[in-house]
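Instructor's aside before we start: the two examples that follow are unrelated to each other. I chose them only because their records fit on one page, so don't look for a connection. First example below.
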Amino acid sequence: MTVDHQQTDHDVIKHGHRHEGPYKHVVAFIFSIVLTLIAFAAVAAGGVNTTFTVIILLVMAVLQVLVQLGYWMHMKDKGHFIPILFLVGGFFVAFTCVVMALSWVWW
């Protein structure tokens, strides 16, 4: 008596990891390039208000970090809770150090 185990799409999704293919990586790469071009254009424009340029650069930097973490470092996938927890903790410690240094200098 033989039992044939045919693998269906449901089994692959339920029990294994389905390969995403290069499509999402290409989209993330193009999005990273577009963010870089926007930041470069904001600085190269020259006549733009300095405060506006700094805000644009900060927004583009945050978006770039999210794209890098999500797609290139695979933080969007399951099983990455501990690395994400340590990254959030590191950002909290760094933010606290910056706030303390600024208050120490200006107090």
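Example two begins here.
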Amino acid sequence: MKTTPEHNERITKMTFASVYPHYITKVEKKGRTKEELHHVIEWLTGFNEGKLQALIDEKATFETFNLNPNANLIKGVICGYRIEELKNPITKQVRYLDKLVDELAKGRKMEKILRTN
């Protein structure tokens, strides 16, 4: 599936606070914990729980996120998009996080989710 300029603009304006509750619901519904979610988010972004709360309070967008150098090892399809083919860097960042949350919810082992070279 190809992204459109409108899709990329919507993703760019999306706040972390708007999707964070959905991530929690998704992982907890599948028997995983908020702490595991935070561990995954911290691996991807370097943000600890305090920084995550600050981002939520500030209604920060995904543009403020810095990614783990191994984020490019995240591959596959999420929400109908092949991550490797996404051109917009912000859209790619959001889909990286979506993919990790999805893997966590599906019961994948943490060692596999937190990719290394």
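The radius of gyration is 13 Å.
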